[in-house]
Design a protein that fits this description.
single chain, 5 helices
């Protein structure tokens, strides 16, 4: 089940981000940006949604918000113990459906060039690479998906 995050979810979201992104620290050379995100502010702004199991335990989360004529997908993370069960895909589809309902033309996102799993996953979900550049000290790969 996917629902909007609330202030009480912050600790679980932070834990999920730490666990999901920790494996990239060595290859990037520092903590990926989502590990240092201001989840409190993102939750308060209504930008964070969580995926819970039937018992209400958080299994993953996604951060997105409208920007100009597209939805900006900021981050998505799934607890490593829950990986491979389609949770990340469901969260991304939720973002896309929210963008469609808002009348937005596309979803845009970026990932780190060292996150090779993501570089393979996003094209399979219909995303097209649009740019590569260094930003905020990270090598980033940008993707977009038209929602026609």
């Amino acid at each position: 089940m996917i629902s909007k995050a609330n202030a009480g979810d912050e600790a679980a979201i932070r834990t999920c981000a730490q666990q999901a992104y920790q494996r990239y620290v060595a290859s990037i050379g520092k903590a990926p940006a989502p590990m240092a995100a201001d989840f409190r502010a993102q939750i308060a702004a209504g930008h964070v949604y969580v995926h819970r199991n039937s018992d209400g335990a958080l299994q993953g989360f996604i951060v997105f918000y409208p920007a100009a004529n597209h939805m900006q997908l900021e981050s998505v993370a799934v607890l490593p113990a829950m990986a491979g069960q389609g949770i990340g895909k469901r969260l991304i589809e939720f973002c896309e459906n929210t963008a469609r309902q808002a009348g937005l033309a596309a979803v845009q996102l970026y990932t780190n060039e060292k996150m090779t799993d993501n570089l393979a996953i996003y094209p399979r979900l219909g995303y097209v690479e649009t740019d590569r550049r260094s930003e905020d000290g990270f090598g980033r790969v940008f993707f977009a998906k038209a929602l026609c």
